[in-house]
C-alpha cells in the first residue's frame, strides 16, 4: 500500500502538494503552541536554576515576565495543560481547534466569552500549509521535499518566537543544525543524488562558516561600537542554514537577510517613528532568506553571475 501511495505521489506532484498542504495546516496549529509555550517553558527553567543561587530571603534572582501568566506550581509543557482561552480559561474543544476553519467559523472570537482571538493563529497555520505545499511541489515526492518541509517548519517556529521575544531557542536551532549534518551523511550513504541536503563536506564547511562568520562580525562590531549587534542564537541559526544549504549559498543568505532587515528597519523608523536604538530581531530575516535560498538559491546565484559577466 505504501508503495502504491509513493507511486501515486511520484506521478502526481499536485496531489502530493495538496496532501502536504493539509499536513502543514495541522502542523501549523502545533507551531502556534510551540511559539507561545516554549519561551515560557524556558523561562521557568531559567528561574528554577536562578532560584538555587538566590538568597533565601532576598529578592527573586529573575524577575517574572512570561511565566507570571501561568501558575508556576502547575505542570506546563507543550502538551500540558490543555489549550484554553487566555481570557476566560474555557477549554478549547476539538472542533474549535480545526486549523483556519475554526477561527473563521467562530469569527475570530472565543466561543465562551467572545474575546477576540488573534489573527496570528490562522495566519501561522495557513502560512505553514502554503509554504509546505510550495516546498513539496518544488522538489517533488522524495527525500528532498521531506527535508525542505522540516526545515520550513523549524524556520516558522523560530520566526514567531524571535518576533515575540527576540529569542532563538537552542531547542530548535541545535536540532536543526545537527539534523542537517546527519541528513547529508544519510543521503550520501544511500547514494541518492538530491538537491537537499548537500554533501557532507559542504554541510560541515557550511555549518562552521555560518557560525564563525557571524561570531566574527559580532565581536568586531562590539569592539568598534561597544554594543552587541546580535545574539548567539543568530550564529546557531546561520550555522544550521549552512549545514542544510552548504557554504556556497551563505553569502546569498546574509545578503538577502541584511538587505531585508535594512529596508524594513528604515521603513519602521520612517512610518512608525521607531527608536533607532530599539533592537530589531535578525532571526526572521535570516529565516526568510534561508528559505528563499533553499528554494531558489542556485538559480539566483547563477543569474547574478550571468548578469554580472562573471559566468558565460
Any overview of this molecule?
The chain is an all-alpha fold. 66% of the residues lie in helices and 0% in strands. Helix 4 runs antiparallel to helix 5 (143-165). The protein has 10 helices and no strands. The mean pLDDT is 86.
How is the secondary structure organized here?
Layout: H1 2-11, H2 13-51, H3 101-105, H4 120-139, H5 143-165, H6 170-190, H7 200-225, H8 232-245, H9 250-272, H10 283-308
Helix pairs in contact: 1-2, 2-4, 2-5, 4-5, 5-6, 5-10, 6-7, 6-8, 7-8, 8-10, 9-10
Task: Kindly list the characteristics that best describe this protein.
66% helix, 312 residues, mainly alpha
Brief write-up:
The chain is 66% helix and 0% strand. The protein has ten helices and no strands.
Label the overall shape.
Answer: globular
Provide the residue-averaged pLDDT. 86
Q: SS-based structural class?
A: mainly alpha
C-alpha-based Rg, rounded: 22 Å
Number of helices: 10
Major β-sheet annotation: none
Count of extended strands: 0
- Provide the low-confidence segments as ranges: none
What is the N-to-C order of secondary-structure elements (H for helix, E for strand)?
Answer: HHHHHHHHHH
Q: Name the quaternary structure.
A: single chain
Strand content: under 5%
Helix content: 55-70%
Head-to-tail CA distance between termini: 48 Å
Amino acid at each position: 500500500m505504501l508503495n502504491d501511495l509513493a507511486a501515486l505521489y511520484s506521478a502526481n506532484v499536485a496531489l502530493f502538494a495538496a496532501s502536504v498542504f493539509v499536513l502543514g495546516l495541522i502542523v501549523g496549529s502545533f507551531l502556534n503552541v510551540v511559539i507561545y509555550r516554549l519561551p515560557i517553558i524556558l523561562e521557568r527553567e531559567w528561574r528554577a536554576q536562578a532560584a538555587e543561587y538566590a538568597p533565601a530571603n532576598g529578592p527573586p534572582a529573575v524577575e517574572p515576565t512570561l511565566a507570571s501568566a501561568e501558575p508556576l506550581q502547575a505542570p506546563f509543557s507543550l502538551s500540558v495543560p490543555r489549550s484554553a482561552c487566555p481570557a476566560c480559561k474555557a477549554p478549547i474543544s476539538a472542533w474549535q481547534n480545526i486549523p483556519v476553519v475554526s477561527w473563521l467559523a467562530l469569527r475570530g472570537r472565543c466561543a465562551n466569552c467572545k474575546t477576540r482571538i488573534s489573527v496570528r493563529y490562522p495566519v501561522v497555520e495557513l502560512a505553514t500549509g502554503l509554504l509546505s505545499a510550495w516546498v513539496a511541489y518544488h522538489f517533488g515526492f522524495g527525500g528532498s521535499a521531506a527535508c525542505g518541509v522540516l526545515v520550513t517548519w523549524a524556520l516558522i517556529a523560530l520566526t514567531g518566537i524571535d518576533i515575540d521575544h527576540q529569542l532563538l531557542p537552542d531547542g530548535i536551532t541545535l536540532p536543526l543544525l545537527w539534523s542537517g549534518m546527519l541528513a547529508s551523511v544519510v543521503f550520501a550513504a544511500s547514494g541518492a543524488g538530491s538537491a537537499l541536503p548537500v554533501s557532507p563536506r559542504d554541510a560541515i564547511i557550511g555549518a562552521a562558516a555560518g557560525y564563525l562568520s557571524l561570531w566574527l562580525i559580532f565581536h568586531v562590531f562590539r569592539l568598534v561600537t561597544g554594543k552587541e549587534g546580535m545574539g548567539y542564537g543568530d550564529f546557531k541559526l546561520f550555522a544550521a542554514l549552512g549545514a542544510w544549504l552548504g557554504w556556497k549559498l551563505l553569502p546569498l543568505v546574509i545578503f538577502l537577510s541584511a538587505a531585508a532587515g535594512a529596508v524594513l528597519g528604515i521603513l519602521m523608523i520612517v512610518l512608525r517613528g521607531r527608536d533607532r536604538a530599539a533592537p530589531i530581531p535578525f532571526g526572521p530575516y535570516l529565516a526568510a532568506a534561508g528559505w528563499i535560498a533553499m528554494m531558489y538559491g542556485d538559480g539566483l546565484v547563477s543569474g547574478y553571475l550571468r548578469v554580472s559577466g562573471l559566468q558565460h
